[in-house]
Design a protein that fits this description.
This protein has 4 helices and 4 strands; from the N terminus they run αααββαββ. It has about 100 residues and is an alpha+beta fold.
């Protein structure tokens, strides 16, 4: 089967080449960040990041993410923890600390 991978360097090699260069240029920052495939959120769960935001919390030794309407999530959040921001400058995922 010759299907293209959903995400990753095999799907977008030029993008990942540039990310690798950026991480090499800023090794201290590279330890704090990662590139994540959002296929589950966008294609499977059909999350509309202009209307919803992920809220991440630690619960019983697990990281749990719920997708809530933005107005409710703003009351629970401690700050943005996933970028890039939406076209409207809104955070994609917020973390409770």
């Amino acid at each position: 089967m010759n299907t293209k991978p959903a995400c990753g360097p095999e799907r977008d090699p030029d993008f990942f080449d540039e990310v690798d260069k950026l991480f090499a240029k800023y090794p201290e920052a590279a330890d704090r960040y990662a590139v994540k495939c959002r296929r589950l959120e966008v294609e499977i769960l059909k999350i509309d990041f202009s209307k919803q935001v992920g809220v991440r919390r630690i619960e019983d030794g697990r990281i749990v993410t719920e997708f809530l309407d933005r107005d409710k999530a703003e009351r629970l959040s401690s700050g943005c923890c996933e970028w890039p921001l939406t076209d409207d400058g809104l955070c994609n995922e917020q973390c409770q600390v």
